[in-house]
Write a structure and sequence with these properties.
- The protein is an alpha/beta fold and 284 residues long.
- The chain has nine helices and eleven strands.
- It folds into three domains: 4-85, Winged helix-like DNA-binding domain superfamily/Winged helix DNA-binding domain (Arc Repressor Mutant, subunit A, Orthogonal Bundle), CATH 1.10.10.10; 91-155 and 256-281, D-Maltodextrin-Binding Protein, domain 2, CATH 3.40.190.10; 161-254, D-Maltodextrin-Binding Protein, domain 2 (3-Layer(aba) Sandwich), CATH 3.40.190.10.
- Strand 1 and strand 2 (57-59) form a beta hairpin.
- The longest helix has 25 residues, at 61-85.
- The protein starts with a helix and ends with a helix.
- Pfam families: HTH_1 (PF00126), LysR_substrate (PF03466).
- Belongs to the LysR transcriptional regulatory family.
- This is Ben and cat operon transcriptional regulator.
- GO terms for molecular function: DNA binding; DNA-binding transcription factor activity.
Length: 284
């Protein structure tokens, strides 16, 4: 393999035809330039330079022929270095999901994906699950991670997740006590699962608090004022699980699905979809 330093010494010497000037251009001594050229000649088995008296020199026929190759090799090396060191174009992935999944499944997936893909920017749009598919179809988002509604068959994946009663760390509930609950104000959430399960065992529940936003619901739960229902993979600290000890029944499960625009067209999009799938398959 040809030494780039030897090639550079030969090219600068060929351009100046003077050892002293060549050494000055490279901020070194004449003997170093001469030694590099001699090393190159030995490697090629050809004399490239005729050394005259003093600093005079001239290229041999072999030297003139080799000069063009040496220049091309060095230019390609410079181009390759510039290409690798140039700032990479940032690619954008627009993910639509709900607040609950963004704070849990998506956050955990980002921990694994982002460090390995520094040139991919993730934008997260939080909205209701029933609003995400229209945004996907309109091209406003690239991925939609949502509670499955069974409306389309072209899902990247759908994973079953168990619904869990959750509350704050200091919440207490006696087995015979009416269950204080908090849900979204508009009722489009998991409350139907909660009341159906309570009805099966003849236990009363009441909506003690509500909020138009999931973060408001979470605030009431963290404050130990009420319980709510979440998919098991969406439970993050400081929330804790409730169950048999509080006399609460099983809730059943729900599907969490991922939809993707242009499957197979963008490697970074396929990669993030795979990371989300792996996170969903992990044991909660």
């Amino acid at each position: 393999m040809l030494d780039p330093r030897a090639l550079d010494s030969f090219v600068v010497a060929a351009e100046t035809l003077n050892f002293s000037e060549a050494a000055a251009r490279r901020n070194t001594v004449q003997s170093a330039i001469s030694a590099q050229i001699r090393k190159l000649e030995e490697q090629l088995g050809q004399r490239l330079i005729d050394r005259g008296r003093g600093q005079a020199m001239s290229l041999t026929a072999e030297g003139r022929a080799f000069l063009a190759y040496a220049q091309r090799i060095l230019n390609l090396s410079d181009e390759a270095m510039a290409m690798m060191q140039a700032p990479k174009e940032q690619r954008v992935i627009r993910l639509g999901t709900n607040v609950t999944l963004a704070m849990s499944v998506v956050a955990r997936a980002l921990k694994g994906f982002a460090p390995e893909n520094p040139n991919v920017k993730i934008e997260i749009l939080c909205d209701r699950s029933d609003a995400l598919l229209p945004k996907l179809e309109a091209g406003e988002i690239d991925l939609a991670l949502m509670m499955d509604q069974g409306k389309r068959a072209d899902r990247v994946f759908v994973e079953h997740d168990q619904l869990i009663w959750v509350a704050g760390p200091g919440f207490t509930l006696q087995p015979d006590q009416e269950v204080p609950l908090v849900f979204l104000s508009d009722g489009r959430d998991l409350r139907a699962y909660a009341f159906a399960a309570l009805d099966r065992i003849g236990r009363r529940g009441t909506i003690a608090h509500s909020s138009p936003h999931p973060m408001g619901v979470r605030s009431f739960v963290v404050a130990d004022l009420a319980a709510t229902v979440l998919p098991s993979r969406a439970i993050v600290a400081p929330l804790r699980r409730l169950g048999n000890e509080e006399g609460l029944p099983e809730l059943g499960g729900i599907g969490i699905a991922l939809y993707q625009r242009m499957q197979g067209a963008r490697p970074e999009l396929d990669g993030f979809a795979q990371t989300l799938h792996e996170e969903m398959q992990a044991v909660p």
